[in-house]
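Readers of this paper often ask what the protein records in our data store actually look like. This encoding replaces a full spatial description with a residue-level series of whole-number codes. For reference, a complete record is included directly beneath this paragraph.
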Amino acid sequence: MSQSHAQQDISPGMVWLFAIATGLIVANLYYAQTLIGPISRATGLDPGAAGLIVTLTQIGYCLGLLFIVPLGDLLENRRLIFIALLTTAVALLAASFTRSAPLFLLAAFCIGLGSVAAQIVVPFAAHMARPEKRGQTVGKVMSGLLMGIMLARPVSSLVADALSWHAIFVISAVGTTALAFLLRARLPQRQPDSGLHYFALLGSMWQLLKTTPILRRRAAYQACMFGAFSLFWTCVSLELTGPRFELSQTGVAIFALVGVAGAIASPIAGRRADQGKSRSTTAIALSLGALAFAMPLLIHSSRLVDLGVLVLTSIVLDMGVSANLVTGQRAIFALPAEIRSRLNGLYMALFFMGGALGSSLGGWMFAAHGWSGVLWAGLAFPLTALCVFATE
């Protein structure tokens, strides 16, 4: 992209397109999260291994962040996004039609791998925005991404209840294909000028990680928060549909939909970070994460009260995760433009590793120690982040 082109500010319509696109793409990672029960039964997956459905999607996403997203600093971005989205659509179709646990897990891995297109879109938006508007633009695009994460769970539950769990994957495959062609038609070409070959580019990422302390610290905070987030949302549907609450998939959908209220923290955190209040915002976000798990551990009453506490837990946890993500993202995108795709890939990969750990640990804890075991494991994540934060 030429310098003159880069100075023109991104249009509001294009910001909306980026925000909706990232939301739709990243939602693919979460459709299975509230459907672990029916998918496990249909594919014959052992209950103790049910967390693998989410874990393998996140591992695929992590590997894509480390090995595909850096290509955004090397290859023409529009074509890279197009190919990644078509790969995702094929994997979604495969997931919808298979009845084999190994094949479903392979498809889940490939869904994660292709969905990294969202993290090529985010730096693309940052490149198209004027420097003085870059924080606002990235904040709006990230809001779309967060809404995609939070809405994916209730949408998949509602579709599963109305049709079947297969249907959400078919619908998403069609939508992802349509999005691939829309972005190819609407996005400008962007050919980076890095001057590096692929392996030098990958090698430079280790150097960036070693020499960028803000990246390491922000990734550590968000890895802990996202581990707690993934653990909670992997297991809460199993608890809600179990003998204690006996909710239907529609009930789980309504529960997850209420949790979306946590997204309100995203623009508030962005505004506070713009005012130079990143440190206090981080402390508040991490404390919200710990409070979320402490509430259901401390409050035990009737079925209705316990359900209300879980609803509050989901909102408070989503607020903490959203606020911490936006604060971290703003810090990362303040660093030089020519390394932005690699920094973003590293940041996202590191914290998604925390998410993969959380979802796999959650499935095992639920099977071995029940819901209280899940809550204690979840509490350990934000407490670890707060201990790291204390050294800042």
Remarks:
- Residues 1-7 have pLDDT under 50 and may be disordered.
